[in-house]
Amino acid sequence: MSVAPMMDWTDRHCRHLHRLLSRHALLYTEMVTTGALLHGDVPRHLRFGEAEHPVALQLGGSEPADLAHSARLGAQWGYDEINLNCGCPSERVQRGAFGACLMNEPRLVADCVKAMVDVVDMPVTVKHRIGIDQTEDYGFVRDFVGTVADAGCRVFIVHARNAWLKGLSPKENREIPPLRYEVAARLKSDFPQLTIAINGSLQTDAAVLEQLALVDGVMVGREAYHNPWWLTRWDELFFGAKPGTLTREQVEEEMVAYMEREAAAHGTHWYAVARHMLGLRNGLPGARRWRQVWSDHRLKHLPAREVMALARIRPA
């Protein structure tokens, strides 16, 4: 089980929350481009807390040498896995000639994977779609996986939709192209030696268990973000561990303590952390008011602990 890399969402503050809720789920960074690591602030992009392990670094890029350099940085910073993004369909990513459009160049992806495998001693994995635009050809994704596997990739995370490179926004690309879960199962049948995980609108225990009977892993994206309390069941259901004992109130207190540490160490405002936990009380009485307090910009001048106290006041 893993939480998907999601731009603007799965930063280190979000991952800290998710790790409180599940001890075993694999967590992913947002996609970090090779350009950001070659020319930008490396600590800002790669810093993470030791408590986040296991945590994977997702890279975006298409130049083997640049990806090798970035993978080496990821290894030096202590990540547990390097993942190559071959699934993002945004026009900005396409202009950089990486993301989903890389599926049209499996030999290049293979060269990228080999360049990273050669310089790091950790898994190098690929997250990809099942096709490009509206052509539903199983042979396309089968040959892509086979070519990239020959370069040393042993783990493929399959977003079970095509990526339409023209005419759809990234949001629409997560909703309009039809889901075809059977493609991931077929890949597992054709490549039994590989680890195949599936991604794409899986939102319930039953849906996850159904897929785990067919493939090796499940990656959950927006449902994990919007309803993070679901993660508290994962360790028991999917990893065979004892159930966690934390309450939502204890998680909130842990997050406030984290906010205080972040403010002291890095000058991070609590508001940047709190936005990731707004779904923590989804479905409970008073959740709407609690969420409104934690997202009220007029309270930004208050310490996080005082905001928590305000959020817990029950209306008369």
From TrEMBL:
Its cofactor is FMN. FMN binds at P5, M6, M7, Q58, K127, H159, G221, R222. The active site is at C88 (proton donor). The keyword tRNA processing applies. Keywords: Flavoprotein, FMN, NADP, Nucleotide-binding, Oxidoreductase, RNA-binding, tRNA processing, tRNA-binding. The record marks N85, K171, R174, R288, R291 as: Interacts with tRNA. One of its GO terms (molecular function) is flavin adenine dinucleotide binding. It catalyses: 5,6-dihydrouridine(20) in tRNA + NAD(+) = uridine(20) in tRNA + NADH + H(+); 5,6-dihydrouridine(20a) in tRNA + NADP(+) = uridine(20a) in tRNA + NADPH + H(+); 5,6-dihydrouridine(20) in tRNA + NADP(+) = uridine(20) in tRNA + NADPH + H(+); 5,6-dihydrouridine(20a) in tRNA + NAD(+) = uridine(20a) in tRNA + NADH + H(+). It is an enzyme of class 1 (oxidoreductase). Catalyzes the synthesis of 5,6-dihydrouridine (D), a modified base found in the D-loop of most tRNAs, via the reduction of the C5-C6 double bond in target uridines. Specifically modifies U20 and U20a in tRNAs. Belongs to the dus family. HAMAP family: DusA_subfam (MF_02041). This is tRNA-dihydrouridine(20/20a) synthase. It comes from Alicycliphilus denitrificans (strain DSM 14773 / CIP 107495 / K601).
